[in-house]
């Protein structure tokens, strides 16, 4: 059943429609209370949600209207997916029709043969009819009467009477259109978010959100078991009976390309590999952005795309409501805030500062303190990803600090990323980001080590990659980095010098809590050797060269 879903957004209007198909929900997913709704799988995405009946429209009748409203890239992919689905369905219908025609012809032929056979039997019966006794005729009459009673019901009615199926239960072939009734949308599980994405509350639809973008609200707890619940866009933390706060995920309902930008003025400081992609996506989604970069020439392209130019960090902060910054390391982050004409000079009550740099917890805590001391609001929001993911608006954002500011940044985070996590107090995001990059950097060093070992033992590096791509380690990261090495292409997607910096900071984090990090320490030494071989400004995959020199 193809439909278009029109998402309500209260006084702010409506989201553009999105094509979907009514399907069966997972067995353990309960139907929410309230108005009648169906479980919808959206084309071109991995998303699905309970959608109210009044928000569903027939696909074919509203297709042209939908195409006029939404011209985003992902929307076009969704339309293509619908058309492909229709082509396959049409092909199946044609094949089924052809088979039905052949079957009908076979039945007709069989019926003709049956009629001829019946005619022969009648003629034989008429010859012997006179010899049949009267009593036999009366008995035959009674049997005929019973047969007549049985024949009074249609074949369909008889099938229904004879069927053991309970009243009200639909036949199996109606399965895809039937949504079981239930009382709640709640699931308790241990571990990571898995299975399916949670839809927004039926009573309070999510506002200004994107089905490719998901918010996660995390408060630290000592208990390993974590409760996941559907929540509204307000991201309200719920208290469990144990008193510990839970992690909550809010799925969203709009589509990439249909984000409603905040009316706040946005500033952005730092246009490196990551910052450039972020600013480009902010502009594409309609945000008002003022940019600054230490090398002013990098701003020119964004000025042409509609950005405004700030002469100093202080000027950007003073003229904007929310200012983001993304720079290379702790020293650059401190200089940007505390240096001449720095961020701190532009801070006054109500001004907001979001540091997206990957730095240590001590640095980000110091910056938060000085910003807040001037009446400003602070959020740390380092990002996981690379240049390509930044350009595609598919970064993962780890945030901590001012929760209200986190919510105010919603449309910005949707423009630049696919997922955001709120991790609680300042410093938590920095720690988590260093751990993530520690794992990534160590893995990259292991990949390089494996490829060089294959080479020196006479094994094919390409075959090794093919084997890895067919196993449990298969990933885009693995394939891309191996391809870089095999092709000798080390154009930076994530600078080697920055992953080494993150390894160094992660090792220091371990030292601060007396926790051993021997794997990271070994990987760090390999990256240090690669830097000594002038690989700092190449991609992290250039660590391979540390093994062959």
Automatic annotation (TrEMBL):
<dbReference type="Pfam" id="PF00855">
    <property type="entry name" value="PWWP"/>
</dbReference>
<feature type="domain" description="PWWP">
    <location>
        <begin position="10"/>
        <end position="62"/>
    </location>
</feature>
<dbReference type="GO" id="GO:0003677">
    <property type="term" value="F:DNA binding"/>
</dbReference>
<dbReference type="GO" id="GO:0000785">
    <property type="term" value="C:chromatin"/>
</dbReference>
<dbReference type="InterPro" id="IPR000313">
    <property type="entry name" value="PWWP_dom"/>
</dbReference>
<dbReference type="GO" id="GO:0140673">
    <property type="term" value="P:transcription elongation-coupled chromatin remodeling"/>
</dbReference>
<dbReference type="Pfam" id="PF14833">
    <property type="entry name" value="NAD_binding_11"/>
</dbReference>
<dbReference type="InterPro" id="IPR008927">
    <property type="entry name" value="6-PGluconate_DH-like_C_sf"/>
</dbReference>
<dbReference type="GO" id="GO:0031491">
    <property type="term" value="F:nucleosome binding"/>
</dbReference>
<keyword id="KW-0158">Chromosome</keyword>
<dbReference type="InterPro" id="IPR013328">
    <property type="entry name" value="6PGD_dom2"/>
</dbReference>
<dbReference type="Pfam" id="PF03446">
    <property type="entry name" value="NAD_binding_2"/>
</dbReference>
<comment type="similarity">
    <text>Belongs to the HIBADH-related family. NP60 subfamily.</text>
</comment>
<dbReference type="GO" id="GO:0051287">
    <property type="term" value="F:NAD binding"/>
</dbReference>
<dbReference type="InterPro" id="IPR036291">
    <property type="entry name" value="NAD(P)-bd_dom_sf"/>
</dbReference>
<dbReference type="InterPro" id="IPR035501">
    <property type="entry name" value="GLYR1_PWWP"/>
</dbReference>
<dbReference type="InterPro" id="IPR029154">
    <property type="entry name" value="HIBADH-like_NADP-bd"/>
</dbReference>
<feature type="compositionally biased region" description="Basic and acidic residues">
    <location>
        <begin position="88"/>
        <end position="141"/>
    </location>
</feature>
<dbReference type="InterPro" id="IPR051265">
    <property type="entry name" value="HIBADH-related_NP60_sf"/>
</dbReference>
<dbReference type="GO" id="GO:0050661">
    <property type="term" value="F:NADP binding"/>
</dbReference>
<protein>
    <recommendedName>
        <fullName>Cytokine-like nuclear factor N-PAC</fullName>
    </recommendedName>
</protein>
<dbReference type="GO" id="GO:0005634">
    <property type="term" value="C:nucleus"/>
</dbReference>
<feature type="compositionally biased region" description="Basic and acidic residues">
    <location>
        <begin position="158"/>
        <end position="178"/>
    </location>
</feature>
<keyword id="KW-0539">Nucleus</keyword>
<feature type="region of interest" description="Disordered">
    <location>
        <begin position="88"/>
        <end position="185"/>
    </location>
</feature>
<dbReference type="InterPro" id="IPR006115">
    <property type="entry name" value="6PGDH_NADP-bd"/>
</dbReference>
């Amino acid at each position: 059943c193809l439909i278009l879903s029109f998402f309500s957004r209260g006084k702010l209007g409506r989201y553009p429609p999105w094509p979907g198909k009514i399907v069966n929900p997972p067995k353990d997913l309960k139907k929410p209370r309230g108005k009648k709704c169906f479980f919808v799988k959206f084309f071109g995405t991995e998303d699905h949600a309970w959608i109210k009946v009044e928000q569903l429209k027939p696909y074919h009748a509203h297709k042209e209207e939908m195409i006029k409203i939404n011209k985003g890239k992902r929307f076009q992919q969704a339309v293509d997916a619908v058309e492909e689905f229709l082509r396959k369905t049409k092909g199946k219908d044609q094949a089924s029709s052809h088979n039905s025609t052949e079957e009908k012809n076979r039945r007709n032929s069989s019926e003709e043969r049956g009629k001829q056979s019946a005619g022969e039997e009648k003629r034989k019966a008429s010859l012997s009819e006179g010899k049949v006794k009267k009593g036999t005729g009366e008995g035959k009459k009674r049997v005929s009467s019973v047969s007549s009673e049985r024949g009074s019901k249609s074949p369909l009615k008889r099938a229904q009477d004879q069927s053991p199926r309970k009243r009200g239960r639909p036949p199996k072939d109606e399965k895809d259109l039937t949504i079981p009734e239930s009382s709640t949308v709640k699931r308790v599980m241990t571990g990571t978010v898995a299975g399916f994405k949670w839809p927004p509350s039926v009573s309070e639809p999510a506002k200004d959100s994107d089905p490719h973008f998901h918010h996660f609200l995390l408060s630290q707890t000592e208990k390993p078991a974590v409760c996941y619940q559907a929540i509204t866009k307000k991201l309200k933390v719920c208290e469990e009976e144990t008193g510990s706060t839970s992690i909550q995920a809010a799925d969203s309902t709009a589509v990439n390309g249909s984000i409603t930008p905040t009316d706040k003025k946005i500033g952005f400081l730092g246009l490196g590999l990551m910052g450039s992609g972020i600013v480009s996506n902010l502009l594409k989604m309609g945000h008002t952005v003022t940019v600054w970069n230490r090398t002013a020439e990098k701003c020119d392209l964004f000025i042409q795309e509609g950005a405004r130019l700030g002469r100093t960090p202080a000027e950007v902060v003073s003229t904007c409501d929310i200012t983001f910054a993304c720079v290379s390391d702790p020293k650059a982050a401190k200089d940007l805030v505390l240096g001449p004409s720095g961020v701190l000079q532009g801070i006054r009550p109500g001004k907001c500062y979001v540091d997206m740099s990957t730095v240590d917890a001590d640095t980000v805590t110091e910056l938060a303190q000085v910003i807040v001391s001037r009446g400003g609001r602070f959020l740390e929001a380092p990002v996981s990803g690379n240049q390509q993911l930044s350009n595609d608006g598919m970064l993962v954002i780890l945030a901590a600090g001012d929760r209200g500011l986190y919510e105010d940044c919603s449309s910005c985070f949707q423009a630049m990323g696919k997922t955001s996590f709120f991790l609680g107090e300042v410093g938590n995001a920095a720690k988590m980001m260093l751990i993530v990059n520690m794992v990534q950097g160590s893995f990259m060093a292991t990949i390089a080590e494996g490829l060089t070992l294959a080479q020196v033992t006479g094994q094919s590096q390409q075959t090794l990659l093919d084997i890895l791509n067919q196993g449990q380690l298969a990933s885009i990261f693995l394939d891309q980095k191996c391809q870089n090495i095999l092709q000798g292409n080390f154009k930076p997607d994530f600078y080697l010098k920055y992953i080494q910096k993150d390894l160094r900071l992660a090792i220091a984090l371990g030292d601060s809590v007396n926790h051993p990090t021997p794997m990271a320490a070994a990987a760090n030494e390999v990256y240090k050797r690669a830097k000594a071989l002038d690989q700092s400004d190449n991609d992290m995959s250039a660590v391979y060269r540390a093994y062959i020199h």
